[in-house]
Amino acid sequence: MAGTVLVTGGSGYIAGFTIRQLIAEGWTVRTTIRSLSREAEVRGWLGVDNDRLSFFAADLISDDGWAEASTGCSHVAHLASPLPAGAVKHEDDLIVPAREGALRALRFARDAAVQRVVMTSSVAAIAYGHPPGQTTFTEADWSDPAAASTGAYPRSKTIAERAARDWIAAEGGALEMVTVNPSLVLGPVLAPDFSASVEVIKRLLSGSLPGLPPLGFGVVDVRDVADLHVRALTAPGIAGERFIASGRFMTMAAVAQVLRDRLGDQAAKVPTRRLPGWVLRVVALFDPMVRQITGEIGRTRATPATHAHDVLGWTPRPAEETIVDTAESLIERGVVKV
Ligand code: NAP
Question: Which residues line ligand 1 (CB under 6 A)?
Fold first, then answer.
């Protein structure tokens, strides 16, 4: 089934691959960007059939443009939300656009009689603020936005997803909502303006990290995350569900090992030395960016995607392939000099 779908945040990393797949599968796609001055640039890197893609200007924190973008759509994929590359001045810089944007996407979708909104949430709305002993998380878990250990980004994603679900229950009417909750999204980049999540591979390759911190994350490929969004748009009988999109949990040391094993000389700057957790804690005293991740030291947060596999037949590619494709794409585009 293919209809007309609005993908919010067309300049984004995951949105780009989602738009490409939707168009390949016969959908007519509309997308929002903050300013139409970027339309030509975004069209350039998407490289799709221009007749099946149209652009609308809309910001998460304003009503302008949303009615025009939503009217006539059968489905919405709401991906736009701020994803910071480092520390933010104030957490409301993330929370307000994340929450208000989600509510806006839903409200205008309902008013336009859209059938279903697939909202991109995150494992950040699942696996944070829990006791240190818990190492595996499922769709039944919710991050605790009030916990001191929950950073600004997980807080923004948790508050936004909760607000969206509360709104759907109270005011959504016939509108259905499903969330896709990815872990760290890696994979080839379409443009120099890639997501903050890819920074981790860029920093490993460029040798800008003094060593390998004791941190880890679930790895998932951007092409597989896009595919899960497309499946979730139309699969019957899944209203209200959450779908984790994640491959296996990997430490930075394991990711570095994949780069060294598979890239040979191109991985010459990838560090081999492991940094102990206490070094990070000392650096965090002076560096707000490092402070944001001290809660991650030594933590395992495995987020199996069994539900997406069982219900939607979703099978992500191996993490090794994703890591190598990310690195090769960054090298090819000249983003990192190796
Ligand atoms: P991205 O490349 O940074 O894309 C974010 C998009 O949101 C961009 O199009 C950005 O527009 C837009 N945006 C941000 N603030 C906005 C505002 N105030 N008004 C309108 N648009 C705004 O990141 P991504 O990785 O594709 O992320 C897409 C979604 O996936 C987000 O909801 C993110 O939280 C979620 N997610 C990402 C990851 C990951 O590892 N990448 C993991 C889990 C969940 P501009 O280009 O104008 O800034």
Answer: 9, 11-15, 34, 59-61, 79-83, 97, 120, 122, 157, 182, 184-185, 195, 197
Query: Mapping DSSP to helix (H, G, I), strand (E, B) and coil, where does residue 39 land?
Result: helix
Within 8 A by CB and 6+ apart from 71, the residues are: 112
113 C-alpha to ligand 1 centroid (Å): 25
Atom in ligand 1 nearest the alpha carbon of residue 156? 34
Looking at residue 11, what is its pLDDT?
96
Q: Residue 309: give its domain's CATH number.
A: 3.40.50.720
pLDDT in tens, 238-253: 999 999 999 999 999 9
Within 8 A by CB and 6+ apart from 196, the residues are: 83, 84, 85
145-159 average pLDDT score: 93
Residue 140, domain member (yes or no): yes
The number of the ligand 1 atom at minimal distance from the alpha carbon of 184 is 40
In a domain, 338, yes or no: no
Burial 196-221 (b: 16+ CB within 10 A, else e): ebbebbbbbbeeebebbbbbbbbbbb
Catalytic residues: 157
CA-nearest of 89, 52, 56 to 289 is 89
If one counts the domains in the chain, the total is 1
Predicted confidence (pLDDT) per residue in 165-219, tens digit:
999 999 999 999 999 999 999 999 998 778 889 999 999 999 998 899 999 999 9
| Distance between Cα 81 and ligand 1 center (Å) | 4
pLDDT in tens, 249-293: 999 999 999 999 999 999 999 999 999 888 888 887 877 777 777
Whether 14 maps to a domain, the answer reads: yes
What's the chain's average pLDDT?
95
Residue 296 included in any domain = yes
Ligand 1 midpoint to CA 58 (Å): 14
Nearest CA to ligand 1 atom 18: 60
Q: Whose CA is nearest to atom 46 of ligand 1?
A: 11
Q: What three-state secondary structure class fits 52?
A: helix
For 301, the domain range is 4-332
Test site for ligand 1: of 63, 195, 303, most ligand atoms within 8 A of the Cβ: 195
State the pTM of this model. Answer: 0.96
